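Project standup — Tuesday

K.O.: blocked on the structure for the chain from last sprint. Re-posting the sequence here as requested.
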Amino acid sequence: MAREAVTTWFGAFVIDGREVVAAYPCPADRLQLMDRIRTRRDGRLTPEEQRLLADHLERGIRSRDRRLTQAGAKPGGGEVPDLDPSAFGIDPAWLRELLLEHAEEALRSAWDASVHIEEAVKALRDLDAVRNLLGERLTSWGGRDAPATEEDSGSADAEARRIAQEPEDPAAGIARPAASLGSARRRLAELYLSLSAVSASLQQSLEEQVPREAPNLASLLGPLLAARLIAQAGGLDRLAKFPASTIQVLGAEKAFFEHLRGRAPPPRHGLLFLHPDIQSAPRSSRGKLARALAGKVAIAARLDREGRPVRPELVSGFRHRTEEVRALGPRRKTSGVRKPSRPPFHRAAADR
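H.V.: unblocked you, prediction finished:
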């Protein structure tokens, strides 16, 4: 029977049946044991495992550890006996403490600081929704007693400022609400203006913070669009892992699923449509520009995730591609009979 290599947090051992025939214990030191735990978690071999393989690999040793089989051991193994770390001068209680310490390290390393950008973008979106509702209500309510002038044009901001500054005397105007309702309406207008101030503060904060945390994305897209893209992806870490094809349609998930159901053509862009060069391009050229920009965004996100400095060639490369597409002009429609589109999968399966 071939001998088996067994690895544990406190060392590596060679087992023959249920007997330990060779032991390579780790040093009885907490720092070195912690280093062994990190090494094993990263998929690398500890010094004890390397010595074991050097001594027993030629004898056809087996192992159920993928790291050892990748290093040349044969896959397989039988029942492993219980190994006591105290027999090698290591306190078994250290395992819990070391695992908790390692888990804390893993959480710190996995922390994505862009989560605050994501939350700020979501807060800004919620504020805009509430402001729009309040603005519609104030415009409607204010139009009951004072028609909009050409200067105001019925805008919510102007209406809110007018209502917030109106006198408390209910007789100081035509068809004004009663004192209690007028006071409540003024507070509503003040709330709208306060939300506008908070929204402006959030935008300013994003414009200041995004270039610090994602300088390449900010230089390529602008701070606000870069922040929205990070929030849509679920953080800078996730955005850096996305391929360019996914980045191109981020924000167009609803249209994409409609396409998968066979009810709509594939979307050509999502949030990237908000980029000025894509927004101002002819309709037939937006897909090409969005595809080119998505490729640059994928590179920029990976650079920002690694903390690299700004690479100006990303912006210049996209501008060069923009000039090329615009020089080609809008695509002409081809004449002739259009081929029927392929039916959706569920319909095609039903026809069979």
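K.O.: great, moving the ticket to review. The chain is about 55% helix and 5% strand. The first strand starts at residue 4 and ends at 8.
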